[in-house]
Amino acid sequence: MVNIVTATAPILTWTLRLLRSEVMTGTATGHRDPTRMCCRHKTHKEGTHMAKILIVDDSPSDIRFMTEALKGSAHECVSITDAQQTEATVEAERPQLALLDVVMPERNGYETLRALKKLPAAEGMKVIFVSSKGAETDVKWGMRQGAVDYLIKPYTPEQLLSLIARHV
């Protein structure tokens, strides 16, 4: 059996490093619009992005964790905290991949994915569920809804990047 402290140590180290950097750089207060964040950085030149990734999660800290993990990649990220804005964001941004939380207020990830499947702008967009709901039945249900993969929280930045690389 895996010791829980050993299994979560890399995630805790990453989170502490992230929080420490936010406090030191002054970004701990957030972005201009707390419901939309982007991980496009000045180090990326226009046109060099591999894929546009939409992150939908009601937790700003989970969004921050994902955007920090993607910071060094060439992917452009757009994130929202309200699942009810997903269709409008997909229409406007046309992402190639969505990282979608399952447990959210108002509308869960399964309902959100079903709504996206009816949206012409989402045609060809891949969806990966990212959730703390990790029971076998949850994963199977997510895949039956049309997700291409399922990432169980907690996870490491390396696991996230590996999964994204597999699908874009």
TrEMBL record:
The keyword Phosphoprotein applies. It comes from the Bacteria. The modification 4-aspartylphosphate is found at D101. CDD domains: REC (cd00156). The keyword Acetylation does not apply. Residues 52-168 form the Response regulatory domain. Keywords: Phosphoprotein. PANTHER family: CHEY SUBFAMILY, STRESS RESPONSE REGULATOR PROTEIN 1. This is Response regulatory domain-containing protein.
